[in-house]
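Why predict the complex rather than its parts? Because the way molecules touch one another can change local conformation, and only a joint prediction can capture that. The input here totals 833 residues.
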Amino acid sequence: MARLQMQKIGICALKKDRQALIEELQRKGAVQLVDQEPPEEGAFGKTNTMEQRSGYERTIQACKQALEVLDKYAPVKESPLAALEGRRMLSPEEWKKRTREREELEGVARQINALAKQAAENHTQAGRLQAQVQGLEPWMGLDLPLDFKGTKKTAAFIGVFAGERDEGALKEALAQSAPELEALDLWIISRTKEQTCVFVLCLKKDAQKAEDALRANGFSLPGLPGDKVPAQEKEELLEKIRQCQEKAGQNEEELRQLGSRREDLMLLMDDSALRAEQQKATDLTMASRHVFWLSGYLPAKRAKEIQSLLEQKYGAVVQFEEPAPQENVPVAVENGPFAAPVEGVLNSFSLPGKGEIDPTFMMSLFYYFFFGMMLSDAGYGLVMVLACGFCLVKYKNMEPSWKKTLKMFLYSGISAAFWGAMYGSWFGDAPKVIASTFFGSDFAIRPLWMDPLAEPMTLLMICMLFGIIHLFAGLGCKVYQSLRQKDYLSVVSDALVWYLLVGGLILFGLSSQTFVDMLQLDFLLPAAVGAVGKWMAILGALGVVICGGLGYKNPLLRLVNGLYALYGSTSWLGDILSYSRLLGLGLATGVIAQVVNMMGSMMGGGVLGAIVFILVFLLGHTMNIAINLLGAYVHTNRLEYVEFFGKFFEGGGEPFVPLDVHTKYYKISEVK
Amino acid sequence: MSIGLALAVAGAAIAVFGGGSGSAMGVGIAGQAAAGVVAEDPNKFGKVLILQLLPGTQGIYGLIVAFLVLSNIGILGGSADVNMSIAKGALYLAACLPIGVAGWTSGKAQGEASAASIGLVAQRPDMSGKALIFPAMVETYALLSLLISLLAVFGVNSLAI
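Output of the joint prediction:
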């Protein structure tokens, strides 16, 4: 349960060592560099590496794109658990060796992107030509080019009428439009619902009249290029399409062959990311002609190691100082093996802000406990333990964040198995159903403690008791935190008075017959305890009113604000009732599991019944695990974030992000 | 067949109907938002799917209550209590109302909160932990009504009327 102690580090060294020193720091991953204003006078100034950096960024983009192309044309089969495998380890020498030819690798990335573009263009071109072929289809019966205008004595019109028209009607319509036409002949070449393609011939001298008549009847030109006979044109188009497709095929074949360079591209991408980050760090240094300096934060426990490394290897001057109280120091937390897995849950809320403690350990205690209560099935818990355990054992090289998440679910699974056994729930009532359906026995696994369906009221009270413990633990954290900040007033006003008020009210309630009857409890505290509780509550309430009014001079305002603070005690009722979700979600798991088992056993015993049962069992329980895992996760988080953190924790700390190897596919092994 | 039994079955139906409708609307609303986000960035599928599923619980709560009612009155298991009094049937019906009604309204409201949270994740993927909490706030009221429905069904079951 600790925030890492941070120190400020200042490093001064020769400029010729700058690149090497920054690389060294990056591999160590211990220092977060900070930006600083250059002194107004003097030889020191800032460095600007924007240009190189954007070069690396472009390479990263190109690699990303090229890898996506390769995923499409030369896919590699990945197991669904590939994300757990973690980054591959390379020694610094191997890394250097494989990225020596950066330009060649960049060329590969560019080539892949260019090929993909060409392939796409060829496909588009083929599609365009295909559309032209389709446009020609109605004209296949014509053995003249589409732009045929007639012979020496005749004029020809080739074109379309909208809609389906027949020959006789068309001729008649034309004759009506232009009665003086001597000779006009019309052939229908093809006819569909949308259009009628025609060939019209008349004497050359009548050409203008004929055209007017045609236009008047909705004639239009085909709108296709055509200095060739349609059939021949089609042949040529088909040939072009074939060529385009062939070219696209060649592009794709080349891409498939380039699939073997995938790992090189991954490495290039990582190498570029590495260098871009180095450049960024370089930008944060101050340099004169021969010397440079930088400052940053590092965890105090790594100070010695970094100091001796830099002093020995680069002859650097390394200085440490404690951060000033008003400084915004980046935050990192470190916890033991039990609590560390829930750090992710803390991170998704916020890291502890200024002066706040790291709540991870207290949180983890309740996290596993509540998660188990909500999932509350021994079978499901064991499934979780087996699945997470298998992954943890099989994938040793897993990234730390994954490892933490899986461990969190592993521990939560153990807790779920514990609670399942307490409630007697093993895949719901599966043992009982199997025994009675297939073996005709009345065997059942008895709950070790209680059956929630039989005594929901008792369990509800117990859930609220756990809630009160959780909330009081939150107040305890507040006390600890305020003591550390030497804010003794806050110890009284934010914690002590509430302990008195809420604790006193509970004691008082439990000594009253009506209250105990209402809750169906079978014990009653003696009246003396009740009296103590009463006075505690009165004292607490007075304290709340007084503390709530502090900070106001006007006595009336004091009273009003004090009473308003007392009104805030109603939120405690809501907070405590909120823990009824422990029961609600626990019951939900159990009842759905029972529904599944009941549906599975509907076919009765026998072989067919067994097959149906197994299928329904697998499908139903998989679904139930999924839904209830989600529910348990979300609602455990909620209890921690809203109820628990609400008592003492605000967060808002800036995360500590050291200069580090932030890569995607590869990492560098330590130099021994 | 007695009216009491019919009332009890109607109660179970209301629980499933109300909870299911609420969840269907909620998951639908959230699903539209989720599809929009995934269209922009397919990598966010996992994150937004979880958010889409959150309003799905009301339907399950309705199912739980209905199942308990049906098995208590013997419709499930084939030993239906045909002589159930009207009072008892009406009590079962009343016990189903909290989840039937609050399941409906909270499902829809939670779907809207989920959709907003999905928008949050689309812009700030690092906020996915906090984004879960907003819909979970709405869920509280579905849980409370589930709890009261359950306690009431248990209570009615043990009444000798």
